[in-house]
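input
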Amino acid sequence: MNIPFLDNWRKRNDGTRGQGLASAVAVDPEGVAELLAECELLRVRAEQRGLELDDSPASLAALDQLPPRWRDDPEELPWLGNDAGLYLGTVLVRNVPGAIWSIWPSGRPVVRLVSGREIDVVEAGLDWAMAGSPELSQVYAESAEG
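output
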C-alpha cells in the first residue's frame, strides 16, 4: 500500500499528538481513509468466523451478531475495539454522503457528518467490544439519519 503522506508525517511530527495526522487528512484524505480502513485484527477475527467485512452497513449488523469471544482475551479486547471503531468509521465515510474523517487535537480519529456532528467511532467501537452496546449497526443508523 502506497501512502506517501506517512513518511512526511513521521519526519515532521514534532511530538504534538494528532497534528501530523490532521494535516495528512487535509493533504491526502483518501490515503488516510485507506490507512484507517485496514482494521486488520477485526478483519482477521471476522474472517475466522466466516464473515467477510465488505465495508457495508449490512456487515456492521453481521458483526453485531457474532458471539463476543474476544472478551475472553483482555489483551486483545482494546485492540479489537479500536479496530471495530475504525471499521464503523470506514463504513460511515464510504456510505453516508458527505461523511469525512477528522482528527481531534488528541490524535483520535472521528467521523464528521455534513451537519457538523462528530462521531467518536473509536469510543463506540470500544464500548461495543467490551459491553456489546451500543451495537455498531445502531450507531451507524443513528449517524446516517443526520
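quick obs: Helices lie at 4-12, 19-27, 29-36, 40-48, 57-64, 77-95, 121-131, 136-145.
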